[in-house]
Amino acid sequence: MNFKKAILFSLLVVAGTTAFAQSGNLRKAKAGLQKFQEFKGSDIASEQLAQLGKKDLESAKEAIDAAITHDKTKEDPETWTIYALVYANLATAEKSAEAAKTAEEGIQKATELDTDGKNKENITAAGQILGEYNFDQGADAFNSQDFKTAYTSFERALHYRPGDTTLLFYSGLAASNTKDHVNAIEKFTQLVPEKEYSNHKAVMTELSRLYLLTADTANALAYSDKAAAEYPEDNDLALQNIEMNLITGNEEKIIKDIENQIAKDASNKTLHYYLGAAYSASNNTEKAVEAYKKAVELDPDYLEANKNLSATIINQVGNQLNALNENNTLSNSDYKAKVDELKEQIKEALPYLEKVISLDPNDIDALRSLRGYYSFLEDEEKSAETQAKIDALQ
């Protein structure tokens, strides 16, 4: 998460007024800053930089503090530019919030005085260094999970580095972690056109999730669809898009999308599971059972598929039983015959329900379904045995 450092200090040799027109303090400050920058531009460790460059930076600070009060240089835009650069470097070298604030004041004053734009590049360089300082502060806070402080620091850094993709991404993450969905969306949205950004796919995924959290299902679906379309070979995004459509009640459209994914990856158990969920949500029980069975066939220990398959079969029998109970035209013998048919039909659920319990013996909902199953079959012994297991878990 390191920024590329903008090194513009070679301009200091020629920028601004000539050496003869400068005061001694301004020349001294520029010389000290130049030496410090030579150390900073090398590959030495930050600890060594602080040690080796400290003397030069302190010398530059002492000189520039005098220059901003001297009659010959106090209204010179270059003086305030060097002032901003010195204190911006002090802020990063010493992790000093006070120095950062002083650098901000220097940038403001230099910008006001630099009417001909001769110092523009070095003023920008000072801002870049402050951006680095604020990013480092934000990164430390982020790593400590102080996301509110991290967001504030990243925002300050963005003031000097507008559009920086790394800053926008981590600023969005920090906002998301504080449940500031509005600002998280605003930051991530700026990254949507940046398709070459390494975390672009994550941005699209997060935007869909954030819009869903704000109850904006239209945008949640739009970004989910867009992500799946931009990364057609990414199975995780395809599955996320399927789930998003299921959550928002868009089952009919998504069934076709799932079937298209299955055509590309027929051995993907999760796709068959989602197809079952989509068909179930569309009240097509037969198709749902067929899809769930395929998922279980691919992975007999697939807990969710076994659970949904057994539940779908049991619910289907339950719906038919309710219809029978409401049918007053049936004779007792006809009613009994049809109930016996349902008892045979529900037996199909047993192996899947037993598999769920074998995979998760503490699943009370599955145990309750099993107890209901035995009660319907009028197997009092096994019903009582299952109830005892439920009681033991409560």
UniProtKB/TrEMBL annotation:
Ranges occupied by TPR repeats: 269-302
InterPro entries linked: CellSynth/LPSAsmb/PSIAsmb (IPR051012), TPR-like_helical_dom_sf (IPR011990), TPR_rpt (IPR019734)
Key words, A-Z: Repeat, Signal, TPR repeat
Repeat keyword on record: yes
Claim: Cytoplasm is one of the keywords in the record: no
Signal peptide annotation: 1-21
One Pfam match: TPR_16
Residues in coiled coil: none
Database matches in PANTHER family: LIPOPOLYSACCHARIDE ASSEMBLY PROTEIN B, TPR REPEAT-CONTAINING PROTEIN PA4667
Protein name: Tetratricopeptide repeat protein
The species this protein was found in: Sphingobacterium micropteri
